[in-house]
Amino acid sequence: MSVNMFTTLSKKLGITDVKVVNKAGEILRLIDIKNLAIPLNGTSKLVAALDLAATSLKFHLDRNQAINLAGVGKKNYLTTLQLLDDILNLSPNLSIKDICLQLGCMNVTSEASNIIKRYEEIYDKHNTVDCRKPMFLVAAVFVACKKTKTRIDQTKLVELAKVKRSMLKRITLAMEMLSLEPVEEESKQQKTLLEMVEDKYNAEVETPNKRLRSHDQESQDENYASWRQKILANAAAAIALRD
Predict the structure, then answer these.
(1) Which letter, b or e, does each residue of 190-213 get, where b requires 16 or more Cβ atoms within 10 Å of its Cβ?
(2) Please, which pLDDT band fits residue 126 given cuts at 50, 70 and 90?
(3) Residues of the chain above pLDDT 90, percent
(4) Residue limits of the ORC6 second cyclin-like domain (predicted)?
């Protein structure tokens, strides 16, 4: 690739930091070494490398300008960019604070952190979801902005999420509903759990043949009373140990 073309493109994108240009050169070499089949070549490939380098080093870049310089369709460009980003593992680990800074909404940092924390507690118990991914963090920031009526750039929001707008919307709705749900008091949760256990027990001791129940009614009542007392004792012991 022509060094002059590389320099010209970086200037048009407003990239003056040598670190970004050098990083773009490394990305180009990685693409060639890995022999990645991407629908970009020539100028578009150079622009993509500069775009990825700027993003990985947290250098601001006008994405629309990059797409215009690349000379390819927006969807094609963004899809390829995401593919390269995933394969080469270039994206930095963004934080809630980083996202708020880029969106100009530092006032919701604390609220967004609380939202993502609760989301993790509910949906990440079995490590099936990585809530540190940009799409979840961005969704939390968006919900926080809605709650505080803070205006942000919607286009920039989607870019930071690195997923389709429809996917981001689904995650946002889930977080929004979760943030509106009242947290039940622990005593109420314990009572509900105990009632469920008792209901299960009652369902199990009921038999289709009511005559058997009438014959053994007294014995079953005694067994139930003993069982219930044991359950309550265990629950009380667990609470005492926790406190």
Answers:
(1) eeeeeeeeeeeeeeeeeeeeeeee
(2) low
(3) 15
(4) 94-177
